Amino acid sequence: MPSTAPPPSRGWFAQLLLRLHFLAGVFVGPFVLVAALSGAVYAVAPSIERVAYQHELTAPSTAAARPLADQVEAAQRWVNDRHPGDAVVEVRPAPEPGATTRVMFHEDGLLESQTRAVFVDPGDAAVRGDLPVYGTSGSLPFRTWISTLHRSLFLGDVGRLYSETAASWLGIVSLAGIALWASRFRRARRKRNLVLPDNRATGYRRTFSWHAATGAWVLLGAVFLSATGITWSHFAGDTVTALRSSLSWQAPTVDTALDGSSSTSGGEHAGHHGGGSTAMGAPTTTPEQFDEVLAVARDSGVHAAEVRIRPPATADTAWTVEEIKLSWPVAMDAVAVDPGTMTVVSQVTWAEYPLMAKAAKLGINTHMGALFGLANQVVLLLAALGIAAMVVFGYAMWWQRRSPGARVGRAPTSGALARAPWWGTTAVVVVAVGIAMLLPAVGVTLLGFLLVDAVVTTSGRRTR
């Protein structure tokens, strides 16, 4: 019996990209839309916090800053009146005149990596209030709330699958879309309509013009947000971390162990805390030591205004002073100080970071809207809104493509792989498997897309 398989066609790859772009857009679109809208708010959250928490962040006193010891003691009195027994775990001196010092305490019931910060006016040591703060970035409650929504929808590890799926597919859909855009741009007579929306058109063509033009302008932002967002994801993030570790691309950390053993290490998303628990227990610290340790760090080259000072967790570990300046130019130097001799026992500078560790840090800071300040936040806001608009335009195009009486729009023609040459099919399978191994969320959802597509296609053929 002769074969009924269609002959290979030169247009099979463009057809495959169009089908993939459509299917991923339909199924992953809601995830991308939620991530984009919550990300848009997160992008400007630092500016919102400066207004919402102006009282806590602002120091009205114009007097010269008092010693850190006085500020720490004031914070301890404030906390002891409300939560007796809470210990100081970190101090962030006021980075500039008019700003408050943060004295941070451990408190039961807070999120992981979250502490209770008491805000102290450096001029008169008056307490301006207290708030829970999160992570190295020092996120206050509003930014922490929107960050949790953006990352996990308040559903814990299960919710993180949503953001991982959105981040993983965003880059793939964007690259497939720009490839289709480039193909149309090469053939189009009016190339301007693929760069700027054609408002003279109507219906589907007008929506398509907005979708294509918006995609062309936000492509780089979408790919960047996808790549950096993956580093926060659960499964793909672990893969990236393991890859960086095997290639020695991890950020270095200071050795806080006073006996010479290695301290705990961390990545871009978590700071180190100076060793683990031992039988020696936590040492006694005094407010005066914060001034002494900071003076040693300053003499050793830690010059940035934004620093955090952390007491040792155990008696056999050192104090740490780390620069935490996230804006350009970043400052990430750190030292470990022996409290017994007040000498630096370990030091790490930004220059010692491997190139890829620097790139990861800069990328993450940009994703958070911190690297270039307000300009960074505005660009992220526009990119996120553009991505959200593309999703809406995509669904509108699907609706406008429906046949009379149909409930949904028509999908692009299927069967691209059946028309592909053997080497094309092999290449697609190899690439798909490779991406699925690096991005498990893509592999699982792609399999689901293909199964649904096969059922719908088979059902449609039987109906016809």
Automatic annotation (TrEMBL):
The chain crosses the membrane at residues 20-45, 166-183, 378-400, 420-452. Residues 257-285 are annotated as: Disordered. Keywords: Membrane, Transmembrane, Transmembrane helix. Pfam families: PepSY_TM. PANTHER family: IRON-REGULATED INNER MEMBRANE PROTEIN-RELATED, PEPSY DOMAIN-CONTAINING PROTEIN. This is PepSY domain-containing protein. It comes from Curtobacterium citri. The lineage of its organism: Bacteria, Bacillati, Actinomycetota, Actinomycetes, Micrococcales.
